[in-house]
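Board notes (copied after class):
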Amino acid sequence: MPAKKRRADSSLFPNVPIQPMDFFERMYYGQGYQRIAGVDEVGRGPLAGPVVAAAVILPREGIGEEVFDSKMIPIRKREELYEIILSKAVGVGIGAIGQEEIDRLNILQATLKAMALAVQNLPVLPDLLLIDGPQVLRLPIAQKPIRKGDQLSNSIAAASIVAKVTRDRMMMEYHQSFPHYNFAKHKGYGTKEHRRAIERFGICKLHRKTFRGVKEYL
């Protein structure tokens, strides 16, 4: 039985206009593309930890669930969707760039590298990438950058969910080694609690030394 047209769920996202979430996928399938991968990242803004990207190739019929921008989905639902995506996707790839390389490259270049790694780590080769944001990757694959793509494309939204859950779990593991920063709660973002902890304890090896809010404490 064919899946119904995907739309943003207005009950979950009341401030977002209802729009088809499979518009780009249907358009490019109609042009002859066979394996469309959505690509997104999470972790550009935090003061600590890696930037993590995901690439996801969904089946044409979808996964039987609505997906959307991971930041707008409640944690429990996001975790549930993560497991469904992993079980039903044609392919999932992850790319992560740590804080030392972020400091060496700068956050934009580190983000693009993480995205490229995610695509390269897919178990099957896509023939089109739908990428969240305005940038393209240095890969010999057709690409379509889409601003706010995690709110406009099922494939990108799925990638945003996988990247978000993956990074959150990494930061919760780091919390075990550095509990006084409480990474399990804020995931490395520059919250008041995190900034106070830096003022009190200084920085740790997970902090991005070129970022404002960290470099002042070197």
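Comment from the instructor: The two ends are 59 Å apart (CA to CA). The CA atoms of residues 127 and 140 lie 9 Å apart.
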